[in-house]
Design goal:
By secondary structure, this protein is of the alpha/beta class. Helix content is 46%, strand content 14%. Helix 10 packs across helix 11 (335-354), helix 12 (368-380) packs antiparallel against helix 13 (385-403) and helix 13 (385-403) runs antiparallel to helix 14 (411-428). It binds adenosine monophosphate (AMP) and zinc ion (ZN). Zinc ion binds next to loops. Zinc ion is lined by residues 35, 230, 255.
């Protein structure tokens, strides 16, 4: 694997807090699980940052020859408002507010999520399992954990016993914290609490009479806790131990810590070889989040329809903006940064289109093989997209300087440069050439104007045969024209 370059791929592992050589358990297969969205509302740009980062990682793994089974779940049940199993069910609350069935809420926001990720040109995962589609697997896993003695049932709910688990395993392994410190940071249990320990968390929650989404279980009617779905679905599709588990950094302390505990208590092995976490998208230094209310919807960003936006920015400008920072660094949103990204993105696209204009020379004045090596070295260093972009800018400089006669490229180097630029810009960074789409639609507009003028001249001469032929032939290729008072309009059917 990875024969493209001298340096092997290294990835930063949250679990060990260092960069490690990437060695999948069953090469060339790579199992990758990324925590997906909770589909009770629209996703904001912060969520998009995490999903786009993992899309680039997925694309690069595919590019260097791995066969990746990429699983990204949809959380469509079991997510209460509080991280500590309290508060209302997010889906039921939204369903009441919008006067819809909870599953209508799920459907609506799942479709919205797909549309947004399509706009950013992300590849679909290999499997997109839902929590509600895996209730049986979750119940089975909870039974196993109960059998192993790391959980207990109280009045129709089941809780994970963190203290018991900690006697054998390291509960704070992911965030490198001791049990005592974790306990200190957690509030005391109240008299009403069914939990035995302050850090215990729900695996199964007993339904109240008003609970809308509930299922029968060995413990009565109820619904799964938030974390168990990811343990159950990752085990089902990727096995008891798999290669990569990802998500945003905000998931480390609770969701992923509990996921490790559940999987280990059930399967008695560490579930994940490489834990990878994306850093947060921030607005004026504060994390963008649904609850803080500082989240732009991607649609608002595209149209510019938000008080914090000076104007709209295209999906590829936004994707390029995100690639300009490393996935483990915070990324602060600002209009200035997006405008700079827009310029950078256009510079790359211009470079790519100028490639066609280069005439090869008998020899080269630049080292394209070294540029190619640098691009791989950047991505092999924990997917360092900002460094990759600096090399792609060097590629664009070479292209422009060659056109100006300041550099020379041999035919073989020109072909190599073309290959390197296209591979990294389109296949790895997942960018699309929007300038081409703009240019294409400009050309279509011009052609349609010309055709409709010819038709209107024919009509003026009462040449109905030509006029009808134009209308019918356009219809056959999917364009409908409509004659009105103010002239003729057209649209794609
Ligand atoms: P949620 O729908 O809230 O469960 O979040 C879906 C994904 O987005 C999770 O992996 C979160 O960690 C991630 N996420 C949430 N907020 C941000 C943010 N501001 N920046 C980057 N990722 C985020
Ligand atoms: Zn998860």
């Amino acid at each position: 694997m990875d024969s493209q370059t001298k340096q092997p791929l290294v990835v930063y592992n949250t679990l060990t807090r260092k960069k490690e050589l990437f060695e999948p358990i069953h090469p060339p297969l790579v199992g990758m699980y990324v925590c997906g969205p909770t589909v009770y509302s629209d996703i904001h740009l912060g969520n998009c940052r995490t999903f786009i980062s993992f899309d680039t990682i997925y694309r690069y793994l595919l590019h260097i020859g791995y066969k990746v089974r990429y699983v990204r779940n949809i959380t469509d049940a079991g997510h209460l408002e509080g991280d500590r199993d309290e508060g209302d069910d997010k889906f039921a609350k939204k369903a009441k507010l919008e006067q819809l069935e909870p599953m209508e809420i799920v459907q609506k926001y799942t479709i919205g999520f797909h549309h947004v990720l399509e706009a950013f040109n992300t590849l679909p995962p290999s499997i997109e399992p839902t929590a509600t589609g895996h209730i049986i697997e979750q119940i089975e896993m909870i039974r196993e954990i109960l059998k192993s003695g790391y959980a207990y049932e109280v009045n129709g709910s089941v809780y994970f016993d963190v203290e018991k688990y900690s006697q054998k395993y390291d509960y704070g392994i992911l965030t490198n914290r001791k049990l005592e410190d974790l306990l200190e940071g957690t509030r005391e249990l109240g008299g009403q609490d069914e939990k035995r320990g302050r850090l215990d968390f729900a695996l199964w929650i007993k339904a109240k009479p008003e609970t809308l989404m509930k299922w029968p279980s060995p413990w009565g009617w109820g619904f799964p806790g938030w974390h168990i779905e990811c343990s159950a679905m990752s085990t089902k599709y990727l096995g008891q131990t798999f290669d990569i588990h990802g998500g945003g950094m905000d998931l480390q302390a609770t969701h992923h810590t509990n996921e490790i505990a559940q999987s280990e208590a059930c399967n008695h092995v560490q579930p994940v070889k490489y834990w990878m976490h994306t850093n947060m998208l921030t607005v004026n230094g504060a994390r963008m989040s649904k609850t803080a209310g500082n989240g732009f919807l991607p649609q608002e960003l595209f149209t510019g329809n938000h008080p914090l936006l000076e104007r709209g920015y295209s999906p590829m400008t936004v994707r390029f903006f995100m690639a300009q920072s490393h996935y483990r660094s915070t990324l602060d949103f600002s209009n200035e940064a997006l405008q700079a990204a827009e310029k950078g993105y256009k510079r790359l696209m211009e470079g790519l289109s100028n490639l066609q204009r280069i005439q090869p020379s008998s020899s080269s004045s630049v080292n394209v093989a070294a540029l190619r090596e640098n691009c791989y070295a950047a991505m092999n260093d924990d997917f360092n997209t900002p460094v990759l972009i600096s090399h792609l800018f060097e590629g664009a400089r070479i292209i422009n300087a060659t056109i100006d006669g300041k550099e020379r490229l041999s035919a073989a180097d020109l072909e190599l440069l073309q290959h390197v630029m296209k591979t990294f810009v389109f296949d790895v960074l997942g960018l699309l050439d929007e300038t081409k789409a703009d240019a294409k639609s400009h050309v279509v507009d011009g052609l349609m104007k010309l055709i409709l003028e010819i038709r209107s001249e024919a009509r003026a001469k009462k040449d109905w045969a030509t006029s009808d032929k134009i209308r019918d032939n356009l219809k056959a290729i999917g364009i409908e024209i409509k004659d009105g008072k103010d002239g003729t309009d057209w649209k794609f059917i």
